[in-house]
Each structure stands twice: as structure tokens, then as C-alpha cells.
Amino acid sequence: MTELSPDTQEMLDSLRAAVTEELERKQRMGHYAVFWQDGKPVFIGEDAPHYPDDTDSQPR
Rounded CA gap, 58 and 48, in Å? Predict the structure, then answer.
């Protein structure tokens, strides 16, 4: 893997921390999250929508 400059690594770390914080907040509030996996959206969480036509989009 290509080594990142210190500034770029700092930005990446900041973005990762922000995403982690937001996902934790959504989980605490009981909101679902949407991820892109294998070319499809995946809904994760207790209140995630269910799509009977697409079993990959059901919550885990």
C-alpha cells in the first residue's frame, strides 16, 4: 500500500473518527445505517426498512 503523507493520514484519521462517532450516535438513538456492500445498499439496525424482493437489504 502507498504510504500517505502526514497531512493526508491526519485527514483520513479525522474522517474515520467522525464516521465512527456518527454511527455510534445513530445506534444509541435507535436509527438504522445504510452501507454499500457488493454493489448493493445494506440496511443495518432495528428500525431498518425491509425489502422482501431483496434479502441482502434486510437488517442484521
Answer: 7
Q: pLDDT tens across 11-60, in order? A: 999 999 999 999 999 999 999 999 899 999 999 888 898 875 555 555 55
C-alpha cell at 5: 503523507
Cα 6 to its chain centre, rounded Å, is: 25
DSSP string for 32-52: -EEEEETTEEEEESTT----T
Residue 36 to residue 1: CA distance in whole angstroms: 23
Q: What is the DSSP letter of 5?
A: P
